[in-house]
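Fig. S4 source data, part A: sequence.
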Amino acid sequence: MVSEPVRQRFLRDPLPIRLGGLAADLARIASFSENPANRHAVASLLEEGKYFAEW
């Protein structure tokens, strides 16, 4: 779960900035997922991205 301070900070940003953050997370997921050693980072980014998309 993403912390409440992260949620509040995310929601303060204008929509284009929020979408850019989500796009950056998706790009990181694509890049990191090429290496099995990054599975924990990928899982964390997926969890964060899920909340960013929901908010």
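Fig. S4 source data, part B ends here. Residues 15-32 form the longest helix (18 residues).
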